[in-house]
Every structure is written in structure tokens, then in C-alpha cells.
Amino acid sequence: KKYEEKGKAIGMAEGKAIGMAEGKALGMEEGKSQGIESVVIAMIEQQLPDALILSVTGISKTRLASLRSKRK
């Protein structure tokens, strides 16, 4: 139960903070290239689900996979 609540707090709240706010600030305004990559990497580090990352950032699955492998 406690884990589930913490999961919601980290996933939803931080996901929105990182994904929505930073995604708009960095990704949309900065012109997707460098900005969105740092957002995606931050989201990967937060262990957010791929579907959420893809829908929030609008990047392709291929790009997500390449960023994920670049990180390792």
C-alpha cells in the first residue's frame, strides 16, 4: 500500500513536473533537439513507463530506444 502511494507520488507528480512542465519548457520552446533529449533522459531515470514518455514528449519509439541505449 505504502509503495503504491509512493509510486503515484513519484510517477504522477514528478512525472508531471518533469514531463509536462519541463517538457514544455525545454522541449517545446527550445526546439525539440537538445532540450527534449534531457527531458527524456530525466524521465528514463525516473523509470517512467515508455508510453507516458512517448505521449508527453512526442518523440518516436526509435528515438526513445536510442536515447535509452546511449545512457547505459
Task: Give your account of this protein's structure.
It is a single chain. Helix 1 runs antiparallel to helix 2 and helix 2 crosses helix 4. By secondary structure, this protein is mainly alpha-helical. About 14% of the residues have low confidence. The protein has four helices and no strands. It is globular, with a radius of gyration of 12 Å.
SSE order in H/E notation?
HHHH
Low-pLDDT residue intervals, each spanning 5 or more residues:
23-32
Radius of gyration: 12 Å
Q: How far is it from the N-terminal to the C-terminal residue, by CA?
A: 32 Å
- The averaged pLDDT comes out at 68
**Main beta sheet:** none
Approximate shape: globular
Q: Which key features would you list for this structure?
A:
72 residues, mainly alpha, 4 helices
Sum this structure up briefly.
The chain has four helices and no strands. It has helices at 2-30, 33-45, 50-57, 61-71.
Layout of secondary structure:
Blueprint: H1 2-30, H2 33-45, H3 50-57, H4 61-71
